[in-house]
Design a protein that fits this description.
The protein is α/β, with parallel strands linked by helices. It has helices at residues 4-8, 36-49, 59-79, 93-105, 127-136, 153-159, 182-190, 211-214, 239-244, 279-293, 297-316, 343-352, 365-371, 387-404; strands at 17-18, 21-22, 24-25, 87-90, 114-118, 139-143, 164-170, 196-199, 218-222, 233-237, 255-258, 263-265, 321-324, 333-338, 355-356, 358-360, 376-380. It folds into 2 domains: 4-30 and 296-404, Aspartate Aminotransferase, domain 1 (Alpha-Beta Complex); 38-292, Type I PLP-dependent aspartate aminotransferase-like (Major domain) (Aspartate Aminotransferase, domain 2, 3-Layer(aba) Sandwich), CATH 3.40.640.10. Bound molecules: pyridoxal-5'-phosphate. Residues 92-94, 122, 124-125, 170, 174, 199, 201-202, 222, 233, 363 line the site of pyridoxal-5'-phosphate.
């Protein structure tokens, strides 16, 4: 049985006071805290193995290369990719999406072609597509959602047309918590020959992800949302598609040979990893994946779901609190408003009670526009959160209401 209280002990940062109150960290959709296993992997890498990879004959370089490529295998295993060469390391989820937009989509797009995204995308899965659309004459089409934050699959079906070149869909919404029926959406897209990218930044930390079972073409994820370091993430890409794609950045490590007349590119995935990569970050990412794999991911999901259900019910029952995003399938996130109090004031007040939440538009301005609001307060859960954390959040919100009356 999953035990959050003992897991907490593996996250030293959580054991501190802020403003004289015990820290209650509920900003996990923004970034998660790091367990000792990840901290030690980073420390060990720099103390014992630091060297550049893939290019030297000495032992440290061999060890660094082994650690780096070992992490690729771990990420591949975590996503159930067919082969580790289908994993490209990137600076994060944003860069993974940009890679697909610029290397996969841009060369294929013709004026009038359509790129399908949803109303609930993070800016990272909107702006790259707008950029390639501007460069190619393609247009962005948007799958609508309802008040609960549930996508309209009928509209999605209609929007999947002969001009649809690619669908880029968020797996779990960072602002609403909605878990989208991506397996079904992929099936519908593939029935029309449309390739699908999933933005998995908020799904991979909460749900078991199997890229073969999903049958997605691309899956983008971010280590720092999964207990790993910042500035590192990965793109899963179907081998056949990665093979067809040109590199999008040139430089060291992505080449097989270079003359002034011609460059032969390295094989996949190296052709997408130009320059010295974030080796320590990758090692830390691998350690985070190993850490996660110590647990039964379904038990973690159930634990977090219980916290979400408790928080949603307790907050929803408070007079003056409005929940934003009430889809039946949700993970990790509860967004809300407290009376007329500006979310930033709520956030500042909660912080004084030791409760760390995010306030703002959560890099999802079109969602805020949909609800006609500037921002929300967002509490987001991780494996180390407990019922006590939910109680502290709810008590903090009561304090806000008492103060602003
Ligand atoms: N997509 C979603 C749904 C996110 O929540 C985030 C981060 O907040 C991103 C993309 C961007 O991820 P990264 O910070 O790895 O670039």
């Amino acid at each position: 049985m999953f035990d959050a209280t003992s897991v907490r002990r593996e996250f030293p940062i959580l054991d501190q006071q802020v403003h004289g109150k015990p820290l209650v960290y509920l900003d996990n959709a923004n970034t998660t805290q790091k367990p000792v296993a990840v901290l030690e992997a980073l420390d060990h890498y720099y103390r014992a193995d630091n060297a550049n990879i893939h290019r030297a004959t000495h032992l440290l370089s061999e060890r660094a290369t082994r650690a780096y490529e070992g992490a690729r295998g771990l990420v591949a295993g975590f996503l159930n990719a067919h082969d580790s060469s289908e994993i490209v390391f990137t600076r994060g989820c944003t860069e993974a999406i940009n890679l697909v937009a610029f290397s996969f989509a841009r060369p294929r797009l013709q004026p009038g072609d359509e790129i399908l995204v949803t109303r609930m995308e993070h800016h990272s899965n909107i702006v790259p597509w707008q950029m390639v659309a501007q460069q190619t004459g393609a247009v962005l089409r948007v799958v609508p959602m309802d008040e609960r934050g549930v996508l309209d699959l009928g509209a999605y079906e209609q929007l999947l047309g002969p001009r649809t070149a690619v669908a880029a869909l968020i797996h779990v919404s960072n602002a609403l918590g909605t878990v989208n029926p991506v397996r079904q959406m992929i099936e519908m897209a593939h029935a029309r020959g449309v390739p699908v990218l999933l933005d998995g930044a908020q799904a991979a930390p909460h749900l078991p992800v199997d890229v073969q079972a999903l049958d997605c073409d691309f899956y983008a994820l971010s280590a720092h949302k999964m207990y790993g370091p910042t500035g590192i993430g990965a793109l899963y890409g179907r081998a056949r598609l990665l093979e067809e794609m040109p590199p999008w950045m040139g430089g060291g490590d992505m080449i097989a040979s270079v003359t002034f007349e011609h460059t032969e590119y390295n094989r996949v995935p190296y052709k997408f990893e130009a320059g010295t990569p974030n080796i320590a970050g990758v090692v830390g990412f691998g350690a985070a994946v190993s850490f996660l794999q110590r647990f039964n991911l379904r038990e973690i999901a159930a634990h977090e779901h219980a916290l979400l259900t408790h928080a949603s019910a307790a907050l929803g029952a408070i007079d003056g609190v409005r929940l934003i995003g009430t889809a039946p399938e949700r993970a990790g996130v509860v967004s809300f408003l407290v009376g007329d109090v500006h979310p930033h004031d709520v956030g500042t007040f909660l912080d004084r009670d030791g409760v760390a939440v995010r306030t703002g538009q959560h890099c999802a301005q079109p969602i805020m526009d949909f609800y006609g609001i500037p921002s929300t307060v967002r509490a987001s859960f991780a494996m180390y959160n407990t019922e006590d954390d939910v109680e502290a959040l709810v008590a903090g919100v009561h304090n806000v209401l008492r103060f602003f009356g």
